[in-house]
Amino acid sequence: MREKYVDIHAVAEHLDVKVSWLYNHADRAGLPCYKVGQKRRYRLSEVDAWAEQNRASL
After folding, report:
1. CA nearest 15: which of 47, 49, 54?
2. Which residues form the Helix-turn-helix domain (predicted)?
3. What domain range includes position 41?
């Protein structure tokens, strides 16, 4: 089964951070996302891998 894409609010809840933190740091830190029109979508498995890889700098 294919993993669903989620919005930034789901990512913030998953990581237990504020949405504003994600907006301020995600681009600089290279959080993987998919741009669909004007919206960004995420896969939680990729977010988890990114967080694990960047845990010292977050």
Report:
1. 47
2. 8-55
3. 8-53
